[in-house]
Description:
It is found in: Cell membrane. It is a single chain. This protein is mostly helical. It is built from 34 helices and 8 strands. Strand 4 and strand 5 form a beta hairpin.
Amino acid sequence: MHGVFVYVLSVSGLLVLVSFLPPLAARLRLPYTVLLAAVGVTLGLLLQGFSTFDGLGVISDFVDSLAELEVSSETLLYLFLPVLLFETALAVQVRRLMDDIAPILMLAVVAVLVCTFAVGYALHLVSPLALVPCLLLGSILATTDPAAVIGVFRDLGAPRRLTMLVEGESLLNDAAAIALFTLLLGMLTYRTDGGALEAASSFLISFTGGALVGFVLARIACVLVMPVHDQPLAEITLTVALAYLCFVVADHYVGVSGVVAVVTAALVIGSVGRTRISPTTWGALEHVWRQLGFWANSLIFLMTALMVPRLLSGVGWEHLFYLMVIVVAALAARAAVLFGMLPLLSAFGAAQRVSHAYKAVMLWGGLRGAVSLTLALAVTENHNVPNGVQSMVAILVVGFVFFSLFVNGTTLRPLIHLLGLDRLSPVEHAMRNRALALSLTGVRERVVDVANRYQMDPAAVDPLVAQYGERIEAIDRERQAEAALHDRDRVAIGLAILVSREEELYYQHFTEGIVSRAVVEFLASRAVGVLDAAKGQGAEGYRRAAEAFAVYSPWMRGANWLHRRFGIHGPLAQRLSMRFEMLVAVRMVLGELMLFTQTRLSQVFGPGIAAELEELLRMRQGSVERALEALKLQYPEYAIILQNQYLGRAALRLEEADFRAMHTDSIISQEILNDLERGLGKRRNQVEKLPKLDLRLDTAEMVAKVPMFAGLPTARLAQIGWLLKPRLYLPDDRVVRRGDRGDAMFFIASGAVEVMVPGLEQPIKLGSGDFFGEMALLTRQPRNADVRALGYCQVLVLDERDFRRMVQRDPELRAHIQAVAERRKSPAKPAAAAE
């Protein structure tokens, strides 16, 4: 049979077979991976037991093609592993992963090392194998397969945190275990010397180097995807190419872990790519990768399972004993990490506590799968590995994998049920009843409305309406019997819902083209912090974390320092522009959350809890409004430009939707639609450009606004402007500190400050056109008050030396300043300070 024909027929036949396995696994209530393994071994046994299936046409050719199919471990690793890893990592929510990054890293790295050495030393003590081959076997068995476990979790509705712990562990676990496997295989085949220090450094370099390669290539892909924006076929193709390029470049060219590179790249695309790839493409991309992952997982498992009968040739009773030893050693090592080391992280405050029920499921749910079988196949194909080692590794890995699948995998569902992890907590049960009652009431009303609209007979309508009434009454009875929820629990649940809804709205407005990419990334990351604070500290934590939306980031303060110290305006203008857009977006979303609370959450939690949630939202709205108002007052023209940009984005989105609706209704042809969308694209590029923020640092113009300089000739204003140094102070910045030496005078060009004079109950507020600090210059005494910026405040600074020169050259100006200074010596007349 021709080579290409063999591969086409065998692969297509296997795809037909796997298409029927998911519904069969659901019917049998078995994990899909367990059924895959069983079918693969069955096919392998059939191929071993029967030499030919003549007379069955295409079925005979399919069986013969499977018998002739020769797939090396290198083919499986390079063809399927990048897809399998990329798809798994792409589906991981990086922000959720970071919530439990400490226990995940403990299980992914420390547990791999513990399992490797526990299995290796245990096998070395009872078998004739040397230590390095035993450690190699341990590294192969350290890889875990999440496919079967996650499938069971989703079917049973296991807690989301448990699912994330297992999924995150398996994702990073494969990367660490394969990097360790590569190192040990090199030691076994004498490619490395095998020193402990060299081994540790090689592992560290391989792991961190792979992460660096994956990160760099993923960021490059995020840049390259911009020219093909709104081209779904091109954008998705670029991500597929990225998965393979990461693996090849890292493994073949750089000499580091290709597995780590692929995982890192997928995590970057999953977290950052959502805003780089066009919103219409992202959903299709996720669907394509789920399909590719399903194919890769199914084919790699079936192809390796087909080889199991061959790998088990030469099995003896002693192998059964060795298998029992490594099973006990692996479970003991995993238990030591879960119940011994993991609690230390919680004790030192490095991670949230993981319950014993979670640990028990994670202990029993550490299933092994296709990756372990593929690595074992790689050992058997390496001619530098002794035959005895090849046989032992193949037999024990296959035995361990199938023990974990057919024993652990089939009993995992009863274990989860026994521990009660598939049942709702009292809080969740109460929420479920409230939500169900709300839904059933709405459905009953809509059923009555539909019946009236279509004039249906009451005999047909009344029984159905009565059924819904009975269900609502049953839920009400159950709600009366259940334990009462504390208000703090209701508030905590409501806040979690609000923050999750807030993050969704940010991405929704980004999809609609209203919010820019940089702003949605910033706001989404801040929302995660608010959610964590709300979960851990309730309303108080939410209140404190939400204040971060209105405060100034270190980047903003750094840009302000560059402006004040070196006169560099660009970074500050960019940060102010982003801040303005961010505040507008938050204000818009908070308004939507307020409506969501009033219309939906009030029905679920009751008016009292809804009122408390609304009060927290109003608190945030007030903070955002004050920050936004300060920017508007400081830069009114810029505020108009940005608001116009928002409306422009929304208008373009409406135009696009209208054009597509007309095409769907056959009013316009595809050619006309293409022409209209090209015009939209040009205008969208113009709207998306960040408007330039004019800081209005023209000193001559600023000087002309100060009353004491009003009416001076333009030439004189320009001369004074050369002496004055503009500075921008952010809200709450300290402009002058009491007790400091008076070495400068300040003119307020725009904004406001408050002067906190000792002995006065209320601070003196100065605004645009006022000046202060002249008393210290005139008397050469220390500052007698603190001055703080109330909002964005632009001041003109005149130092002592320039001040004295200016006053000496202009007698009239000197007399005017002295007169004002005399009036301001008396704190009883604070109004004079505004002159």
